[in-house]
Amino acid sequence: MKIAIINLTGGGLSGGYKKYIVNVFPRLFDNKQIKDLLIFFPPQALNFVSLNNFPAQTWPFIDYYNGFMWLKSQIKKFSPDVIFIPTARWFCAGKVPVVSMIQNMAPLVFPFQGSIKETAKNMIRYYQSKRAIQKSTRIIALSNYVKNFLVKKWGIKENKIGVVYHGVSLSNIKIIKPKALKHLDNQIFIFTAGSIYPYRGLEDIIFAFNNLTKNLNNIYLVIAGEVPQSMKSYKSKLDGLIKSLNIHSKVIWTGFLSDEEMSWCYKNCSLFVTTSRIEACPNIVLEAMANGCLCVSTDSPPMPEFFGDIAIYYRAKNIESLTEAILKILFLDDKKKQEISKRIMSIAYSFSWDICAKKTIEQLQKAIDEYKKK
């Protein structure tokens, strides 16, 4: 099997997508079923490609405005059996089956967020994704939630979609205490993480944390995650909310954290909370599970698909329910906490990058087989 992978983006690579690339692509290279593999990245990702030693190419800056003529010529020379586009944007390079994958569900379900400019970008992403999904030979969905959305909302045939979960790295890595938390010494803290967007629903944990501080003095809320330029005003609104509740001394924004710093937070927090309204495959949730975090989550899909019965759920915006769920975990005895932590880690082991790579190859082969039948 000869595969061409096209990372068709505007240049940016999210943190979750980078982890997917560095864990899956090497496994594809090493797989004996794959005769040859050619990978293309946007020119803005050149540093990422160089740092990770990928045998990949970047297309010229001007190629975007030329209808990707250079890229199409390279694909034609390579003559792949299948083209894999992990970013759900349509690319046609002749009579070759195409497999698309949706990385981000937010523009499809929650496009109206942030500025007018950001909303406009989301609408473009929506139509680009829908066009790619409709035209592709096969689709890889990162969860059953994504698959059901495509079938029920966009009318995609169920047998055209394969579900392939992302994996999680479970190897022990060095942990580093974030500088923003240097003054925390054995204090109880609740941890939540993810890029700062409205669909993450951070208002829930802020209001619930305010409830907690009325009875618990020595407790902090740690929020990790990058603030995109387009979300600066939203972050300011959250800061205003925190100040109005008079809990600003107890809420710590860390900004972007490295894997080592994230690992420290997972291993030292009292519990992990995810308030997100929408995800395709929640990588941070898998990381929290792999580190044995006790977890509270919205019941929004696909969270229950990954947590199963091991998390305590609450309905989004139901602050009292979230507060009660957090208190329930905080007041568990140590033995019970250890039992739950071990069980959470055992569930995390089922989300393997080896399995992800294997099932991805299976979907690519199905696309080749189905294309030949036409």
Q: What distance separates the N and C termini?
A: 19 Å
**Hey, roughly how much beta strand do the residues contain?**
15-25%
Low-confidence spans: none
Tell me about the largest β-sheet: 7 strands, parallel
The chain-level mean pLDDT equals 92
H-E string: EHEHEHEEHHEHEEHEHEHEHEHEHHH
Helix share of residues? 40-55%
Radius of gyration, in angstroms, nearest whole number: 22 Å
Broad shape: globular
Structural class: alpha/beta
Count of individual helical segments: 14
Counted beta strands: 13
Strand order across the biggest sheet? 3-2-1-4-5-6-7
Quick structural summary:
The chain is α/β, with parallel strands linked by helices and 374 residues long. It has 14 helices and 13 strands.
Question: Secondary-structure blueprint of this entry?
Answer:
Blueprint: E1 2-6, H1 15-30, E2 36-41, H2 46-51, E3 56-58, H3 69-78, E4 82-85, E5 98-101, H4 106-109, H5 116-135, E6 138-141, H6 144-154, E7 161-163, E8 188-193, H7 202-213, E9 219-224, H8 232-244, E10 251-255, H9 259-268, E11 271-274, H10 283-290, E12 295-298, H11 303-307, E13 312-314, H12 319-330, H13 334-348, H14 353-373
Parallel strand pairs: 1-2, 1-4, 2-3, 4-5, 5-6, 6-7, 8-9, 8-11, 9-10, 11-12, 12-13
Helix pairs in contact: 1-14, 7-12, 10-13
